[in-house]
Amino acid sequence: MQRLQGIAVSPGVAIGEALVMGNEGFRIPRRFVARDAVDDELRRLDAAFEASIQQVERNRDAVSLELGREYGSIFEAHLQMLRDARLRSELDQHIRERHYSPEYAVSRALRRYVKVFQSLDNSYMAERATDILDIEKRLLRNLLGRRREEISSLTSPVLVLAHNLTPSEVANLDRQFVRGFATERGGSGSHTAIVAQGLEIPAVVGVGPFLTDVSGGDLVIVDGDRGQVILQPDEETLARYQHDEEQHRTHELQLAALRDLPAITADGAQVELYGNIEFPHEVRHCLSRGAGGIGLYRTEFLYLGVEAPPDEEVHFQAYSNVLRAMGDRPVVIRTFDLGADKVPAQLALDEEEKNPFLGLRSTRLALRNLPIFRTQLRAILRASALGNVRVMFPLIATLLELRQAKMVLADVMEDLDERGEAFNRDIPVGMMVEVPSAVLMIEHFLEEVDFLSIGTNDLIQYTLAVDRSNKDVADLYSASDPAVIKLISMAIAAANRHEMPITLCGQMSANTTYTMLLLGLGLRQMSVAAAAIPEIKRLCRSVTIDQCREVADRALSLENARDVTSYLRQELKKVLPDLLD
Ligand code: PEP
Ligand code: MG
């Protein structure tokens, strides 16, 4: 058994067979073979080796012909390995004595070699590790043949283990069969993490190199609560996790009883709890958790994974579906926040860009791609005739930017007038407060919008100069940092002074560690991943505003993130100790 520590980004526990992506990209269907099938399986292995050798020889000959013999000899190392008697006898032994399937035996043995090569302090040897992974891939392809099960066409449950996954790769995971995932890279504030939460897939990121320690088909646990990945768990660990899973389900059922109760503090202050969504189908999760509306609809996924930008009808259909489900509850549609880690094929963004989070992203990008921006705004406005729609601009850094975005909106209203289309002319217009400049200029912004929403995921990264998706600086990325809390406090105070509605829709508001602090700072609206709503509601109902103000005052006086976190957790423990178990 091997226990690895990463960053917990999407809660829940998943237990199942590994599908190692990237290196082999398809799953190993079974790990063990029946005793009487051993001879047949050995013959299958023979055939796969034979086919692999022939393929590599063909490649060598073709390359030699084209480029000369010295290039063709690159393949000699592969051939040498495929003909290595020691490797064959090791595999035969695994199949005969341990009854491993040939696929599993190949993957296990070759990954052990890879690990040895990678551990040598020698870049030439480390390069050879790639050759071995190549051989693994070829042998598996030949073994599995047509029976190969690709990630896009799974037929049974797996846990996906990968070097890295983009937000759109996570969005495309088959929810029916992918029970959880873990990645070597990634940080806690990444959009990959956010999509996993939205889809309610347990996930751990930033584990560091571990893919050579695991083979497809191995039993794995992804613990999205503690941020751990457990490879080949022993029986005791497995039993404990199975028991935890059971308890988790019981707790969920208890929380479900809160669904129709108001989020009201013990001294009667009303708190609005909204849901964040990335896909229309997530409204189901929000409604079942008793969300009072959608506080953030991230619309970027309409653009990702498709060749052409979505047309007005595609937008309109998506928004209509959400509105139909939400009835007269408010739905905040955020205009596209593309760029950075969400790059659609249709927008020719500079792939060499070294600082995409500081480059052409979000509303800046929209203002330079007006036809695409206008299409989305037309659809949002048309949808406003169907329900309680609010429109919100992301990543606003300057007043000029906000004014330009509003001008485009006014312009699009004229288009719709000309077309004779119905829309809400008084649609509430809001902006995200997620760049420090927006907080510093908040008094001016307040005069130009109808509502504000604090995006702490970005506010943290832009305040502290810490990339939200980089595991190497993940320990510095913290909502507890006094500078971040000060900025949040300034934004909430200014909004409250002007009786301007203000929500917090970053991940901070889904974390119970911060609920008392935020209430104490005067926040009364939070928008969170649906799964977090019941627990936040339970906490709101267990505290008084006076108690929260004291917590906020004390937290504001502390000097570093670590002290803030431990103080907030200590206070939380006094109220709901089970939340910290
Ligand atoms: C945020 O930055 O906090 C936010 C909610 O927006 P996103 O995570 O989509 O950048
Ligand atoms: Mg943001």
Descriptive account of the structure:
By secondary structure, the chain is α/β, with parallel strands linked by helices. The protein has three domains: 2-25 and 150-250, Glucose Oxidase, domain 1, CATH 3.50.30.10; 35-149, Enzyme I, Chain A, domain 2 (Orthogonal Bundle), CATH 1.10.274.10; 257-580, Phosphoenolpyruvate-binding domains (TIM Barrel), CATH 3.20.20. Helices cover 46% and strands 14% of the residues. The protein has 22 helices and 18 strands. The chain has helices spanning 38-67, 69-72, 76-82, 85-97, 102-119, 123-144, 167-171, 191-199, 235-256, 283-288, 312-326, 362-368, 370-383, 399-419, 436-440, 442-446, 456-464, 482-497, 515-520, 533-540, 545-556, 561-575, and strands at 2-5, 7-10, 13-20, 26-27, 149-150, 158-162, 178-183, 203-205, 219-223, 228-231, 272-277, 294-298, 331-334, 389-393, 429-433, 451-454, 502-504, 525-529. α5 (102-119) runs antiparallel to α6, α11 (312-326) runs parallel beside α13 and α13 (370-383) crosses α14. The longest helix is centred in the first third of the chain and has 30 residues, at 38-67. The two termini are 24 Å apart.
